[in-house]
């Protein structure tokens, strides 16, 4: 192992022991360094019904790419749906062999390059998808590396679900305005953009966000969005503007 290279198992241990979303994100960066990739995204829940919103969590992909994905890219991403029908990880380049793709889906894959897709399961039968992309120069994604990525992705998905677990928790009493704000947070909008959409000041949105964090018991926007979806407070994606509530995940 070269000097400065992160040890794979040490990185996994840090992820498993993370006690907050912030420390968990730091551990994700260590894991990416250890497996020699630059980027990761995960989606949850992943079910066959695309009307059910999927929360996106991004580490390493450019902010503009994330914005494009939230706005329309998710419609053409075939990887999560391929993962639904698989029990093991797969190379993104294998997608055309694993499923019949539309022209838009092929174009999507051509833009994101090579990576590894991993179907994941979490507590209470939650299904998710982890995509690990942008391998370092010279990295060969062989079967051994695919299996290594799968172990890391499954551990990380499991731990993240535990960090934002809402089992047996009653949804907090959010005002209508707070519900409006958390829905737009789930869509990836900044406080300034939310203020413009709702026709209120940014300071007002800042205050609503602080109250939402306190009521949900979280400290960042990603955790707030994931927990709000799990509690049935919001949906993201295609039906986010139509549905205010979703059934809670149950054991």
TrEMBL record:
SUPFAM superfamilies: C-terminal effector domain of the bipartite response regulators, Pheromone-binding domain of LuxR-like quorum-sensing transcription factors. Residues 167-232 form the HTH luxR-type domain. InterPro entries: Sig_transdc_resp-reg_C-effctor, TF_LuxR_autoind-bd_dom, TF_LuxR_autoind-bd_dom_sf, Tscrpt_reg_LuxR_C, WH-like_DNA-bd_sf. GO terms for biological process: regulation of DNA-templated transcription. Gene3D superfamilies: Transcription factor LuxR-like, autoinducer-binding domain, Winged helix-like DNA-binding domain superfamily/Winged helix DNA-binding domain. Signal peptide: none annotated. Keywords: DNA-binding, Transcription, Transcription regulation. CDD domains: LuxR_C_like. This is Autoinducer binding domain-containing protein. The lineage of its organism: Bacteria, Pseudomonadati, Pseudomonadota, Alphaproteobacteria, Sphingomonadales.
